[in-house]
Write a structure and sequence with these properties.
It is rod-shaped and about 110 Å long. The protein has four helices and no strands. The N terminus is likely disordered. It has 142 residues and is mainly alpha-helical. Helix content is 85%, strand content 0%. 1% of the residues are buried.
């Protein structure tokens, strides 16, 4: 009776092993561990210790990879912040230039359409000279 229950347990373990192998795509996750009936307890203990050491090593490798990726994300995050700040500065500069251009354009129109008593060709010369002087002054201020 004792021998038949042991045999039944071995058959059950073999069935479990095959079922696990089917779920893992035919690959056994712990090769050699299911052969404990044939190799003895001492060999099984050695294998288990070896498997444990392999898992610890794999964990350490994964931990290092994660740390490296974390550092990479921090670097990318800082770079993104810098790029966003530069973008905001360029937008501000573009708006300032646009406003300045509109103001110069308005000033130019006022000078061209200025005093009707001055003949048109003289008006243009005076207006352009005045505009050039004002533009140079503004450039010096920048």
């Amino acid at each position: 009776s004792s021998g038949s229950s042991r045999q039944c347990t071995g058959v059950q373990e073999e069935a479990v092993r095959r079922s696990r192998a089917r779920r893992n795509g035919g690959r056994c996750r712990a090769p050699g561990l299911h052969t404990q009936h044939y190799t003895g307890a001492a060999m099984n203990l050695k294998r288990t210790e070896s498997d444990w050491q392999g898992l610890v090593n794999e964990y350490l490798v994964c931990k290092k990879k994660l740390e490296s990726k974390k550092e990479g994300l921090l670097i990318l995050s800082k770079e993104l912040d810098t790029c966003q700040q530069e973008k905001d500065q360029y937008k501000l500069m573009a708006n300032q230039l646009r406003e300045r251009h509109q103001a110069l354009k308005k000033k130019y129109r006022e000078l061209i359409d200025g005093d009707p008593s001055v003949p048109p060709e003289k008006r243009k010369q005076v207006n352009l000279a005045q505009l050039l002087i004002e533009t140079r002054e503004r450039n010096k201020q920048l």
